[in-house]
Amino acid sequence: MREFTYESLLDDYALVQQGVKGLGDEHFEHFEFTSQKERDEFRAELFDEIRKDYAFKLLTLLEADVRKDFLVSLRSRRRDGVSRAYRNLCEVYRRETRQVDKQAAQACRRIALGRIFDSLRDYFRGRDAEFRRVCSETKGYFGFRNWYAHGRAREMPVVPDPEDIYVVYEQFWEKVLDR
């Protein structure tokens, strides 16, 4: 079974985009009564759905990595600054939810992802203004991820480009995940 990585998903996205671009009119045989304009609109809808699908997959992978890093940091009691910020966030959360008797990793397992991004943004205040902006922007991306995952009931938020999500991942890897 093939492992899904940021790189493999981005490669797949490029491949699928090329496939849709290469769809000639001969591939629309079952649309024999459609005009060229209608076929072009169909291709545009395919591109849009592909973009949403790959953005969702990449954001889901990023969420898993950030949550895993958060929980591993709590369990292993790392001493770096990001881990201390995670522990402080967890302590606040444990008091709010009245779970001070539980272990940190157990009590904070379901903490909102947005709070983790806020904690990272606050930690990098005065240290790295660009990464603070990335944390805020990434938190906003998850509005799309939640919309896509939970039924598309409300108005569609801005869809991030898969390439932009990959750049965000690289920055998270450098600043947070590879400690």
Alpha carbon gyration radius: 20 Å
Distance between the termini: 29 Å
The gross shape turns out to be elongated
Count of helical regions: 7
Low-confidence stretches: none
Q: Which structural class should the secondary elements be placed in?
A: mainly alpha
User: How would you spell out the order of helices and strands?
Assistant: HHHHHHH
Biggest sheet character: none
Could you explain how this protein is built, in words?
The structure is a single chain. The protein is mostly helical and 179 residues long. The chain has one domain (6-177). Helix content is 70%, strand content 0%. The protein has 7 helices and no strands. It has helices at 6-21, 36-76, 81-96, 104-107, 113-123, 129-149, 162-177. Helix 2 packs parallel to helix 7. The two termini are 29 Å apart.
